Amino acid sequence: MSVSMFRNSIRAVLLAASVVLGAAAAVTVAATPAAAQTAGEKAAVDAAKARGQVGEQGDGFLGFVTPSTDPMLAAAVAAINAGRMQVYRETAMRTGVTVEAAGQATAQQLFMRLPPGQFFKPLMGDWSRKT
């Protein structure tokens, strides 16, 4: 998946999340980039997800399923999470929900779209592998 496709995917997820939050009529998804990431960062995180090292969390951010000693991977996760935070802030401002609610609604959409074998961690829960 290209960076552009990922950004469009995040926009679609946030639009769906706004429906869940009851604010669909007030939301127009920004034309600005949805995630501050490079193709290399995305590839590193995708590979780590496939290895079961990184997963999606209930707050809408990426997290480490197992500890990492790879500073490049940690930087990639941080960059993607920073981009997500920017999107959640923008969504919260447009819809009147909290940043946390925007992230949590997006997480629910991301959980449903995870391919089998990847990890997710619900709020107040433990890491689980999607079957």
What does this entry look like structurally?
The chain is an alpha+beta fold and 131 residues long. The protein has one domain (3-129). It has four helices and four strands, in the order ααββααββ. It has helices spanning 3-20, 39-51, 71-95, 99-113, and strands spanning 54-57, 62-64, 119-121, 128-129. Strands 2-1-3-4 form a four-stranded mixed beta sheet. Helix 1 packs across helix 3 and helix 2 (39-51) packs across helix 3 (71-95).
User: Given the structure, what is the number of helices?
Assistant: 4
Rg over C-alpha atoms, rounded to the nearest angstrom: 14 Å
Which regions are unreliable across 5 or more consecutive residues at pLDDT < 50? Answer: 17-34
Main sheet specs = 4 strands, mixed
Mean pLDDT: 82
Structural class: alpha+beta
Distance between the termini: 22 Å
Assembly annotation: single chain
Instruction: Give the overall shape.
Output: globular
Give the proportion of residues in helices: 40-55%
Can you list the strand order of the major beta sheet?
2-1-3-4
The count of β-strands is: 4
Outline of the structure:
With 131 residues, the chain is an alpha+beta fold. The chain contains four helices and four strands; from the N terminus they run ααββααββ.
Characteristic terms for this protein:
131 residues, alpha+beta, four-stranded mixed β-sheet, 4 helices, 4 strands
Strand-helix topology:
Blueprint: H1 3-20, H2 39-51, E1 54-57, E2 62-64, H3 71-95, H4 99-113, E3 119-121, E4 128-129
Parallel strand pairs: 1-3
Antiparallel strand pairs: 1-2, 3-4
